Amino acid sequence: MSSISHILPSWVLTHGPALLVVLPLLMAVLVALLPSKNTGAEKIAWMAVLSTAIICAFIAFGILGQVVSHGPVKYAMGGWEPPIGIGYYIDALSAPILLLITLIAVLCTLYALPSVVAEIEPKKRSPFYAAFLVSFAGLLGMVATGDAFNVFVFLEVSSLSTYVLVAMGASRDRRALTSAYKYLMMGSIGATFFVIGIGFLYMQTGTLNMMDIARILQDVGPDSRVVKLAFVFIVVGLGLKLAMFPLHTWLPGAYAYAPSFVTAFLAATATKAALYLLLRFGFTVFDPSWTFISKFFMYLLAGAGILGMLIASLQAIFQNDIRRVLAFSSVAQVGYMLLGIGMTTTLGLTAGYLHMLNHAMMKGALFLAVGAFWYRFGITQVSDMRGLGKTMPLTMAGFTIAGLSLIGVPGTAGFVSKLALVRAAAENGWWWAVGVIVVTSILAIIYIGRLIEQAYFQPAPKQGAATVAKNEAPMIMLIPLWILALSALVFGIDAEWTTGLAEAAAHVLEGGPILNTPPLSGGH
Amino acid sequence: MIDFFAHYNYIVVVILMMTGLYVVFASSNMIKKLVGLSLFQTSVFLLYITLGKVTGGKPPIVDPSEFKNDHGGGHEVAQATHEAATAAHDTAQVIYSNPLPHVLILTAIVVGVATLAIGLALVVRTRETYGTIEEDEIDGLDYCTNLEGHTGS
């Protein structure tokens, strides 16, 4: 990893945190300005997005290397030292998420070239790529920034562009419009709740820098009603964004009717970034040792997680639309992560974080494969999947590997994180949680097994006398799918790297509030 | 009663916020929902601006006369220095309101406008596609689609 840091020029790394956000935003403007009538424009737009994503991935790699070797990376935006200016703060908790978002963006962009041509009207393609870049920049900004209000701004930057991206699925299915509208309603309420929470924090502490807030909150103590209110508002707001169980109703529609490439990108990154914010605020801004916070984690977060795992898994079984099956499964998987986080033990946090990384890989692969089914055969329904094992063997094989990983079959990444979760629950004495994990894994066997059974054990549909011919997805769609599917296998067999990252993140969370900041020199 | 007036702004904020949220959940008309959402967001603007108010605080604009004493000479300098000294003395006494929440809310207003714009654009598209903007009617139109799994339009 350090070898990558050597390739990059030093100024790229010094200004890496800023570049991660500024580069996609600038490119978004340029891409949006491309003439829409020209057919070559979309190719140029695609190249611009791809190169931006690749550069950002290199920067994220470099930053992760720095974090691993030298500790947290701090960056003062525009040379204004925090807490007066906006400070960026990247530590072992955020660096892996940055890398995850950028890598998924690279893979999804590769996949986008044929997929966007099939799904988006020609004149909308360049603006579509521009909206994607804005969303990408927003997600990176949310994770990289150390300023609470800046988080809100990036949250909205990414959300607003995501509503647009979801609505672009309307040329495929008109329900994308109503889904995008629903997502906009819920998302805006969530973001507004979040900003109310930030307002209360500001009311109590008079600062917006996260480290500064954490420091002042230590003096304020847990008894302030304003602080409690702030916590509740922030958690509900983020809960809406990360699809915590009772607040998840926007998710199935948004995932099911968005363009394939958007769904895959969102499923793998958007909820993860929101979950990261929950960790960041819950553990490093507020003090998790305070009673009302530890009680919240144990009862509400773990409780919502358990309910989500059970109910969303059950709902997934009864869906007809493949993408809705996977979307409900996403809600259930978020439940696993919340359960791990709700334990607040080292093992639990490691397991939750690990599952977050692994889930991004496997759900990304699954949604990419489903997009490929639609691309070749227009398939959206489970019953239409019959015979796909013969007609699209490579795509279906990738889907199967990722699906097995989602179930948690030994040898896959999903197994590693589920096992870690079971161990954490057992260590905590939560045997009922172990039971729930086993039960929901069985439910996962049913809803994923149903798809795989259709594909491999049902004959392909007939067209007249002849069965449908083999029609594999194009190579440029297969490569990202297989990279994700294979990484789900590789990190299942040798989980040392991912577990190491998760342990480092859990270590940050264990450390409690981040306080290593010089005291306020000036003031607001 | 005194308590009521001391928290007057906050009470207005809460009423606006709850009205907005209620409209979002209670109405099925997509435009009315957007109105509710805007009301909800506006209440937050008011909350932030209330935070910036410091009791007895002036608008946070430094008196420009303080900076005029750089040029001029002789007798006037002494005069100006004297004035500056008094001005500085005055500044120490003056309490300014906190300008930061206003700046933050400027950002939030822009976000609110963008949200409303996208929401309205979606409503226009929905009207073009479905011919209605009532959510229950849209659900009815999609009911068969949802059951049989045919793609719409």
Overall description:
The complex is a heterodimer of chains A (524) and B (153). By secondary structure, chain A is mainly α. Chain A has a domain at 291-511. Chain A has helices spanning 2-7, 10-14, 16-33, 40-70, 95-119, 125-144, 148-167, 175-205, 210-220, 225-242, 250-257, 260-285, 291-317, 322-343, 346-377, 388-391, 393-407, 413-428, 431-457, 475-493, 496-510, and strands spanning 73-76, 87-90, 462-463, 466-467. In chain A, the strands form two sheets. In chain A, strands 1-2 form a two-stranded antiparallel sheet. In chain A, a hairpin with a 2-residue loop joins strand 3 (462-463) and strand 4 (466-467). In chain A, helix 18 packs antiparallel against helix 19 (431-457). Chain A starts with a helix and ends in a 14-residue tail after the last helix. By secondary structure, chain B is an all-alpha fold. Chain B folds into two domains: 2-60 and 98-148, Helix Hairpins, CATH 1.10.287; 62-95, no CATH class. Helix content of chain B is 73%, strand content 0%. Chain B contains six helices and no strands. In chain B, helix 2 (8-26) runs antiparallel to helix 3 (30-52) and helix 3 (30-52) runs antiparallel to helix 5 (100-130). The radius of gyration of chain B is 27 Å and the shape is elongated. The model of chain B has no long low-confidence stretch (mean pLDDT 78). The A-B interface holds A 149, 152-153, 156, 160, 163-164, 167, 170, 172-175, 177-178, 180-181, 184-185, 188-189, 191-192, 195-196, 199, 202-203, 208, 320-321, 380-381, 524 and B 21, 24, 30, 33, 37, 40-41, 44, 47-48, 51, 98, 100-101, 104, 107-108, 111, 114-115, 118-119, 122-123, 125-126, 129-130, 135, 138, 142, 145, 149, 151-153.
